[in-house]
Amino acid sequence: MPAGMQYLYGSGEAAAISIQAWNALTGYVEERVRQRPVSGVVLEEDATLAAPRFASCDRKPYAAVFDVDETVLLNRGFEYDAASGRPYEDARWRAYEITGGTTTVAVPGAKAGIDALRRLGVTVIFNSNRAAANVEATRVAIERAGLGPAVHGETLFLKGDDNTGSLKDARRWRIADRYCVIAMGGDQLGDFSDLFNAPATPAARRSAAEAPAVAGLWGRGWFVLPNPVYGTALKGTLDDIFPADARWAPEP
Amino acid sequence: MPAGMQYLYGSGEAAAISIQAWNALTGYVEERVRQRPVSGVVLEEDATLAAPRFASCDRKPYAAVFDVDETVLLNRGFEYDAASGRPYEDARWRAYEITGGTTTVAVPGAKAGIDALRRLGVTVIFNSNRAAANVEATRVAIERAGLGPAVHGETLFLKGDDNTGSLKDARRWRIADRYCVIAMGGDQLGDFSDLFNAPATPAARRSAAEAPAVAGLWGRGWFVLPNPVYGTALKGTLDDIFPADARWAPEP
């Protein structure tokens, strides 16, 4: 059993850190709604990570934008299938989008968090790289987990809705045209900005996430869910992850 | 390379979720100090997870209590050594406690968080299962990462300080006798209460963390740092983690 799967799908620790993210998010949104912010947390089209600027709120209604997989849904069925060591195949994942919904459960804390947001009058919007062609199955999976509604083009945006592929910025900008987005949640840095795709090495990408201009957003507008099972976080050789100054051996 | 090590020691996602925990913690503590709470977040000796009751604050000074390893320090040197697949050996870990300090770095967000707590007048206390016999090396490692001071018996509690072994409740109660503990942080459920050791299966332990009486504490007094590399979270067989209703196969 891969340790990351034991952690994410089986442990109390992962349940706790997920609930923590959702609790922090709802507390943050409650406070922001009270303050009536002048800008949201979606980066403007010409912003950089070094100089982040955010889409303005004007009199737009509030929204919160979430990734779907491993952010609001745990894909137990697909990962059971992968736990035997089967390598990722896109066609198999797309088949899972269509028939896997009965094996998914909500991420711990997600239902309570999403319910709380809606009670605050905040529109909950999903921005996922599931295929637009499979929209009906994805809508049903979200609603089956108690997280709906999700209406394509209004509160559900998918890969294939535009011509930018797996990038999510264009969809975010489209959402920010209509809403004051006061919080975002995801398990991949690309769920917050496509600018995180630019750094070429794991160390540079980690530095980008830790940079002072960005660090203040984590847990304050941008909310991260744990995922040590797949995705952009799982990169790097032994030399990348443990550079020379990180190495230890016992004294002889 | 184990995926959990890529995630924890190398990824922007893990840096972000760690900074998020520390940001949420400092925001929470700021608010609690303003509210002057009547009780803290250390469970009383006769409390249960189903009926949590917390040590009272009276006029005690404020403190926040943290685990050390993978909560405030990343043990890159020991995990580099383990990344080749070497199984855990207690003697090797104890040697690392003594000579490994130069390979550790602070968890992303920990230094800023701990500095902020001290500025708020909150005493920062470490409660670790590092060996009391190695106290001097542990003190130096904490201070080298910019997280000190740590004074044994005052702001640093270790395994061997009492006769309860790796259990941490007795140390927590001792701290709560002198302080109003308004926040705790750790990467293992045992960093919050030894009661989490009772459930016999991963599923029961996860349920304990998700139970309504406890769920409200995550991110609101109890703050979890990610650790998919070692510890109590990494348990369970394929059958434990993916029960029958979690299984999927594509249609033939």
TrEMBL record, chains A, B:
Cited InterPro entries: Acid_phosphat_B-like, HAD-like_sf, HAD_sf, Lipo_e_P4
Top-level taxon in the UniProt lineage: Bacteria
This protein's GO CC annotations: cell outer membrane
Key words, A-Z: Lipoprotein, Signal
Entry annotated with the keyword Lipoprotein: yes
Keyword Lipoprotein: yes
Coiled-coil annotated spans: none
Pfam family, one: Acid_phosphat_B
UniProt-recorded name of the protein: 5'-nucleotidase, lipoprotein e(P4) family
